[in-house]
Amino acid sequence: MIRPLHRWVGLAAALFVCVTALSGGVLALYPAAEAIGTMAAPPTDVGSFAALVQDTVPGLEQIRRAPSGQITAFAYDGGVASKWIVDPETGVPTSPVTQSPTKIWITDLHRAFLAGDAGRIATAVVSLAMLVLSVSGFMLAARRIGGWRRLFAPLKGSLPQRLHLEVARFAGIGLLLSSLTGLWLFAATFGLLPGGAALPALPPVSGSGSASPAALSALKDIPLSHLRELSFPRIDNLRDVYTIKTVDGMGYVDQGTGAMLSWSARTPLQQLSDFIKMLHTGKGAAVLGLILGLCAACVPILAMTGLLQQSGRFSPSSFNKRRTSPKDADTVILVGSEGGTTWTFAQTLSKALAQAGGKPVVAAMSDFTPERYDHVARYLILAATSGDGDAPSSADGFLDRLASMQHPPTAPFAVLGFGDSTFPRYCAYADSVAAEARKAGWRELMPAAHVDRQSRQDFTSWGEALAEKLGVALSLDSKNTEARAVTLPLLSRRDYGEEVQAPTAILRFALPRIPLCSRLMGHGFARFQAGDLIGIIPEGDTVPRYYSLASGRRDGFIEICVRKQAGGLCSGQLMELRPGGTVKAFLRRNPGFYPVDDRSPLILIGAGTGIGPLAGFVRANTARRPMHLYFGARSQTSDLLYGEDFGRWQAEGRLSSLVTAFSRSAEHAYVQDLLRRDADVIRQLIGTGARIMICGGRGMAAGVAAAMEDILSPLSLSPITLKAEGRYVEDVY
């Protein structure tokens, strides 16, 4: 219910919310500019200051003090009305008041869409829509990230997803505040709130006059900083009085005796209304106004990233042309995916079930809410594994939610894990899901199964077992829709490792031509960075092999490091490739192995072809962030990959330090040996907030982890604790 509400309210009101928010953001600049240009009120009283202004402004009728501190004098002299900005120190007019046509137009646009009372009602509806979007957005964010306590935890997912959530986390509270206060002001404008205090009654006056305001005791008792408005009695009318409004209330002052004739204090409701108006407009709180204006400026970003998600090819809501509501669904397909691949298998499964007469719905595992489904007969959980057995981005919080349930769902479940059997924690997260579900007493429909490296055969075999269990015929068109491969021509290559019988190469490919739509949406090779993966489909096979990218889109090329593996079909073909030759490839995001965008030092540790993404991070380090590289190879003369570049990167300030270890040299050292040697330096860097990024083989990563365990022990830290903080990440193979 929450997700459709958020989606459809956002789509319906996007344009109007953007107009209201942007115009409000512009208006928030005016009070800030006014406050910057206004001096603070001097420590004087209203009576003394009014006398100063009266002496310099002929025909003075009224003085107003804005929340920003700006003081305006209104006069009518010789049949001519005038308005002046007054110096708070001297009471002398400094400049006439001029109305900005632009400000008037923006104000009318913001309050009423240039359409009077009907526009004000429309604006109220827009404020209500913004309120619904803010509340539902926070609820969806908490659900996706894994609970309210993790609302500000690091994010995973595609760029539109992360940008949408990141901006929403910053601007959401401000937009919620603006929408609530806007609705209050609408209610006050149309008299929908209880009335305030009545005007004070005017008792008999003395009938005397001609006294200077500086001599009137009631005015002398009120500090100028409390003034809102002071209206002067009409000339030659001894029955008239001074009318004064302050932050505390309103009263009448006898022009002859200076006594306060009557006084009406502001009610709590009026004070609340004043406070709400200040919150909404920023008048009297310039910094708050600027913050709210900045939040409002984020609305177009939220609208655009929201639209991108709705039109994204991995959007669960686009999987079924024949839409099934959660209440009618008989099958719920829960997806845990990191880069998007698993969504494509969910799409295939959903279509097959629908063609067989079923009513499937697809949802992220992070949106697991059994109470939404009234007629569900089964849950099919398709879960990939991120990193070292971690939950993928769309499954955050699933295990916590499962553990907190008092009773498991009545409908049975089945788990299908997706992974790469060359990794040590193959399908570890999917196995954890199955184990925890059984532990919670959830009935299992069929044993858990695995799909190795997007294998069509594995997926089809599981689908056949599912069809037999359900007693239906399933046609699983299991074409790997992720592999929308493009042709990449090889530009150049640098060869290493022949002397140590480990042929290795740095291959640089040309960027493919990207359609305009893909460039706008950031799909495929339109957006990538070092650390992402490229799937290369070898000739004679359909199973892609993945390589870490050593370049980003801004570099203008696609670069990988490849070592020839014994019997390796893809690596063998790549090592035979010459400039001008081509490969078929596609991009796969790897957001779990991106450098966090801050100024903390980076300790980069790699060996062999694991240097690829680390070199890419260094090459992209135009901000001169401290980066310290530990690199292990066999021989300095044979396979020191990027050896020609390290010196230049250090001279340019992109690389702070370089430490190399060579296993087939006189020193016979590995990177973990040099880490132990530099233990004091490592501890010092960790103490300043450094992050550790490791790329390479499993054996190297295990050796580094053992060394780091010893190095961090004096700090009462470990690789596990740093992983929990997002400061220790690995990309191993």
From TrEMBL:
Transmembrane segments: 121-142, 285-308
Domain Flavodoxin-like: 331-467
EC number: 1.6.2.4
UniProt xrefs under CDD domains: SiR_like2 (cd06201)
Keywords: Flavoprotein, FMN, Membrane, Transmembrane, Transmembrane helix
Keyword Flavoprotein listed: yes
Tree of life domain: Bacteria
The keyword Thylakoid is assigned to this record: no
Annotated protein name in UniProt: NADPH--hemoprotein reductase
Species annotation: Breoghania corrubedonensis
